[in-house]
Structure formats: structure tokens, C-alpha cells
Amino acid sequence: MAAFEPVLTRNFAVENSQSLKVYEGRGGYQAAKKALTTMSPDELVQLVKDSELRGRGGAGFPTGLKWSFLPKDRAETFMCVNGDESEPATFNNRYLLERDPHQMIEGIIISCFATRASTAYLYNRFEYIAATRVMERAIAEARAAGYLGKNIFGSGFDLEIYVHRGAGAYICGEETGLIESLEGKRGWPRIKPPFPAVEGAFRKPTVVNNIETLCCVPHIVERGADWFKSIGTPKSYGPKLYTISGHVNKQVCVELPLGVTTRQLIEEHAGGVWKGRKAKAAVPGGISMGLLSADELDVPLDFEEIRKTGCLGLGTAAVTVIDDQTPIMDVLYNTCRFFAHESCGQCTPCREGTTWFYKTMKRIKAGGGRLEDLDVMEQLAKNLGITPGTTICGLADGAAWPIKNAMTKFRPELEEYIRSHQQADKKPTALQEAIFRGVSPSLFDSSLPEPSEPLPGPTAPGHNPRVSPGT
């Protein structure tokens, strides 16, 4: 097989790759000129549809189809570029922003022309201070050169790009939470419908796309849909930036065709597992996607195959490697703590469920765990967020998925952890045990017997032992 030639990162090794002069010298903005002067917006939308480009931000939704949802009779359209890269261990968008900002600007120009948007907002993660400065400088260069502003390439198309920094909230990676934050409000996701394509930023039709997604667009315009589909695997076409971190010898961001395996990333690009150890598990695309076991490291990391392992999806393609000496319980503890902190609190199942997960994990870590805790956590994980209408966004699903995977793939290890870490002084009282088992104890009786019957069924978080069934 021929060696893969970088596409999105082809300018990274060039000195001063952030500058307009270097970008123009390597063919920059020629795709934008071609799109604006020789193609119509509808032709561009169809081209992106034909390429089967899928969103690189997490869900993998077809980009051209997303653009086609915009109302035909709209008077004004906005483009929101999602740079709120807050999924743990994800840093591919930051590389694109810092090292080749004009590539993204060109992608925005073409995408805005295709969607008839005259204003684009780049919503950057709060912590990306350097990336924001690089982007602002690049936007100023592009405006001075006539690539932004009025009548771009003499086409009659006008466009302005504005950079907006968030406040560090994970939830603002969700497109409607991002829009709320952009408008100066609390970053709470909106109830859908209406979807952003109908009513988004400032109540106008809005397209929200990920940075890496838009960076693919100039190359599709330049080389065509067939070229794009020659890279990757069926239904998962094109190049992809993978980030590899965790227990590896070299933490890197690499561009490869979609469909590379976790084992290839570890051995060929990350220098192997650190300290000569073996991989016990890996996160395939951000912790909200779940966990791969050691037996699943040869599964292709694309939009289709990864789901067959029980993971939620490819996500951001941020691979985190976990070595064979790290307890999975520690991984779950950090995961639950993260989601409990980042839940916006708007929806009761997510707010209470993520908090309950974290409190349970905290108790287990302190030596007060029970084997029954795993049953209750598994039941909650199966119910959290999967019933349509119970939560507004997908954070609840993301919080539950690592728990689901861990219970399925690492249950014996989790049980052994609880047994080996139990402490006598942390043993639950009779009252606590009765409440956990769903018994309705009398609060005036302090001489409750130790429960001896098997657990009748996992007790739901928030169960009130004072309320009898049927009341």
C-alpha cells in the first residue's frame, strides 16, 4: 500500500506555517477562489454530499446533509465554528489552529459561501489563549489581503469572521449550548426542535461545524469527491487527526486515513506502552465514547466498526492508553468526577445521576464499597439518557457509556477491587444497608437486624425508604 501523504497537516513542518505568505506560496486560497468564482452554493453543497464528509467533532453526522437542512427562503444565516475542544485528552483542533490557521479560514470561506452565511463565529475553548491569538492575527492578514470583507474574489460575496472565547465549560461543546454561550447567556443546551439549522444563533438559521471538518472542505474542492473517498474505509472517508496520550512513550497528534487501529497508533506512532508494560484498555475517542479492552485494540477506529465493540462511537479520535497496572476503578473514578463537575445541571437525570456516580465511586475508593454497588451503577448507566426526552443533550449518555463498558468488560476486576479495598470501619450500618436494599425501616427502631435476604433488585438513586410502594 502506498504511503499516506498528509493532507490537513501538510504545512505543519514548514517554517512559519501560520503566515499568509507561506500559505499562499503552497497553493492557499486557490480552492476558495475556485469555489466562489466557478461554482454555485448548491453545487458546493452537492460536492460535499458526494464526498460523504462526516463531522469530525464527535457524532460523525454527514456535513453536506447538515448544510442542506437550512431553509431555502432564509434571509440571513450564521456559521458557528466549534472550537470548544473540551473532551479530555483531545488536542487535534488546537494543532490545526496554531499551526495552519489559514487552512481553516479558507474552509470557513467556502463553507459560508455554500450555506449563504455572511457572518462566521469561531468559538474557541477558553484555555486556548495561544491558538486564539494566532487565529486573530491570521484573520487580520486574510482581511487585509481581501480574502475577508466585501466582494471576495469579485464574486459579490461578503464575509466576516469573529473569534469568541468561551468560559471553560465542557457543555458548550454541544452545539446549542455553544450558541447560548455565544449570545452571552449561560451555556445550557436548548430543547430541540427547533434545530439550529432553523433557529440557531440570535434566532437565525445557523450551521455549526467542527474545525477539522471545515479544514477538509478546501481539499475536497481542490481534488474532488472521488479523491476524498479514496482515503479511509467504507462510510468513513478521508483523513483524520488522531491524538494519542496516556500511558505511552510519546504523546502525539498524527494524521492518518480513517480506519487505523489503536494498536497501530500505540506501536507505530506513540513508541509503545510506557515502562515496558502492556495495554489493559484504551479510550477510543474521548472518555464519553467508552472503553476498549486489550482484545479490541485491532478494531478499526472509524465511524462504523468502533460501534461494534460497544463503544458509543469514534468521538474526537482522542486515544488514551491505560496500562496493565492501572486499576479500571481509578479510571472510572476520574471519569465520574469529571462528568459530575461538567454537567450543567439543567436536566434532573443527568444532574443527579452524574453526582450519584461520583459519590458512589468516592465511597468505593474510601473502602466503603459493596459488590451491590456495581449492580446499581450498571442499572443506572443503562437507563441514564437513553429514554428520548429525559435529557436535552447527550452528556448523560457520555457519562454512562464508560460505566456500561467497564461493567461488561472489566467486571471481575472491579469486584476484586471492592473486596481488596473494603475497610472494617467503613462497613455500612444496618440502617444504611436497609435503605440500600429498598427496605422501609422504621426510623424509631434502632435495633434493625442485619439483612440476610438477597438483594431483591437494584435501588434507584433518590429512592425514598419512607415512602411505601403505591403511596
UniProtKB/TrEMBL annotation:
Role according to the record: NDH-1 shuttles electrons from NADH, via FMN and iron-sulfur (Fe-S) centers, to quinones in the respiratory chain.
Residues in NADH-ubiquinone oxidoreductase 51kDa subunit iron-sulphur binding domain copies: 329-374
Alphabetical keyword list: 4Fe-4S, Flavoprotein, FMN, Iron, Iron-sulfur, Metal-binding, NAD, Oxidoreductase, Quinone, Translocase
Reactions this protein catalyses: a quinone + NADH + 5 H(+)(in) = a quinol + NAD(+) + 4 H(+)(out)
Pfam families referenced in this protein's UniProt entry, alphabetically: Complex1_51K (PF01512), NADH_4Fe-4S (PF10589)
Keyword Iron-sulfur: yes
4Fe-4S in keyword set: yes
Enzyme class: translocase
EC number: 7.1.1.-
Family under the similarity heading: Belongs to the complex I 51 kDa subunit family.
Lineage: Bacteria, Pseudomonadati, Planctomycetota, Planctomycetia, Isosphaerales
Domain of life: Bacteria
UniProt region (Disordered), positions on chain: 442-471
Species: Tautonia sociabilis
Entry cofactors: [4Fe-4S] cluster; FMN
PANTHER family referenced in this protein's UniProt entry, alphabetically: NADH DEHYDROGENASE [UBIQUINONE] FLAVOPROTEIN 1, MITOCHONDRIAL, NADH-UBIQUINONE OXIDOREDUCTASE FLAVOPROTEIN 1 NDUFV1
Listed name of the protein: NADH-quinone oxidoreductase subunit F
Matches recorded under Gene3D superfamilies: 3.10.20.600, 6.10.250.1450, NADH-ubiquinone oxidoreductase 51kDa subunit, NADH-ubiquinone oxidoreductase 51kDa subunit, iron-sulphur binding domain
GO molecular function: 4 iron, 4 sulfur cluster binding; FMN binding; metal ion binding; NAD binding; NADH dehydrogenase (ubiquinone) activity; NADH dehydrogenase activity; quinone binding
Swiss-Prot/TrEMBL GO biological process terms: cellular respiration
Transmembrane segments: none
